[in-house]
Every structure is written in C-alpha cells, then in structure tokens.
Amino acid sequence: MPSNVTGVIQDLERVLLSPEQIAARVAEMAARLNVELAGRVVTVVALMDGGLFFVADLLRKLEMPVRLHTLSASSYQGGTATTGEVKVNWPATLNLHGQDVLLLDDILDTGLTLGAITERILEQEPASLRTCVLLSKRRPRLREVVADAGFEIDDEFVVGYGMDFRGRFRNLPCIGILNLDPAS
Ligand SMILES: O=P(O)(O)OC[C@H]1O[C@H](OP(=O)(O)OP(=O)(O)O)[C@H](O)[C@@H]1O
Ligand SMILES: Nc1nc2[nH]cnc2c(=O)[nH]1
Fold this sequence. Notes:
The structure is a single chain. By secondary structure, the protein is of the alpha/beta class. It has helices spanning about 5-10, 20-35, 50-60, 110-125; strands at about 10-15, 40-50, 65-75, 85-90, 100-110, 130-135, 150-155, 160, 175-180. It has a domain at about 20-75 and about 85-150: 3-Layer(aba) Sandwich (Rossmann fold). The protein is built from four helices and nine strands; from the N terminus they run αβαβαβββαββββ. The longest helix has 18 residues, at about 20-35. The relative contact order is 0.22. Bound molecules: 1-O-pyrophosphono-5-O-phosphono-alpha-D-ribofuranose and guanine (GUN). Keywords: Glycosyltransferase, Transferase. Its EC number is 2.4.2.8. It holds the Pfam family Pribosyltran.
C-alpha cells in the first residue's frame, strides 16, 4: 500500500475491495461498454464527488468518442444515512436531447440519487440511457433504478475510492469498512 495512505488504512476495520480487484472489474466494465456502445458518440453524465475515481478510471478505458458532463449530486452530507433530499447542480446549459447517455456513479444504495437524476435525464428525451455503478448494495431500494453494477455488496457503509465519511477517506485506493464508530 502506498505510504501516504497507511494512516488512513488504519481507520479501516477491513478492506472489502483491493485496488487490484477494483481495477480488474473496471476494465471488464469498460470492455463490455466498448462492445455494446461501439460506433456511438457517448455523452457521459458523471456524478460527483463520489464518482470521481470510478469515472476517471473507466473513461480512460473507453474507446468510443465521449463527451463528459459532471454533476454534483449529494444527499448524505458526509454522514452514513441519506438525508432523503438530493441536491443537484444541474447546469442550465445541459441538454441531453437525442444523445446516447451513459450515467455513472460510484454506488447505488437507496436509489434516491440515481432515481432523481434519471428522472431529470429522461425529461430531456435522450436517444438512449444506460447507467453503470461500481457498487450496488443488496438492500430494498427507496426508488427502483436499473443499473449495471461492478460489484454487489452487503448493506454496510463503505469508504474509499471516492466515497467519504465526513469528507474523509475519498483518497483511499481501496474500498473498505470503517472501524470508527459512525456515531462518534
Ligand atoms: O442510492 P443513494 O442512497 O442515493 O446513495 C448513493 C449516493 O450517495 C453518495 O453521494 P453523497 O450524497 O454522499 O455525495 P458525494 O458523492 O458528494 O459524496 C454516492 O456518491 C451516490 O451518489
Ligand atoms: N461513503 C458512502 N457513501 C454512500 N452513499 C450511499 N451509500 C454509501 C456508502 O456506503 N458509503
């Protein structure tokens, strides 16, 4: 593990997915998209901040022409449970009409975030919409979302590879479970 993250790693109860496991799965996801979206110009809508590393890694493996739009979508406010209110900075100039849209996010949990964004995208009548997440939690959704997932995980709060707890741990190269008491 790089020396700059050893202190942060000590805050983990356990590592769920290593950098190597993540990289291998992201490569598989990109390979599939390269086949299924071959010949199209793809408009990526990438949700920040959590999606930062997944999007950066996946996009560099896509071979078709890509346009990138990043949106900030937040509802956890650094905590371990959704506030239920998804705040989105949808740019006034963003128009997805007639485009082949690829919506990307780090994690599908309650479904509230991707549900809200999907609704906004579909209002603009894209030619197609496909959604990919790195992680999908096995749990009942508050909103149903159709998405391809890199990994199905148990219903535990995870950090790393873009995902935070109180603004920290996004820079972990792995994905893990915290040993901090979330109530502390
Ligand atoms: O399916 P849901 O229950 O809606 O959870 C998923 C969302 O939660 C996280 O965002 P968060 O609100 O933490 O903002 P962030 O991406 O800026 O960290 C994550 O990045 C997803 O966008
Ligand atoms: N950091 C983090 N953000 C989330 N947003 C929804 N679920 C999670 C999670 O398990 N961890």
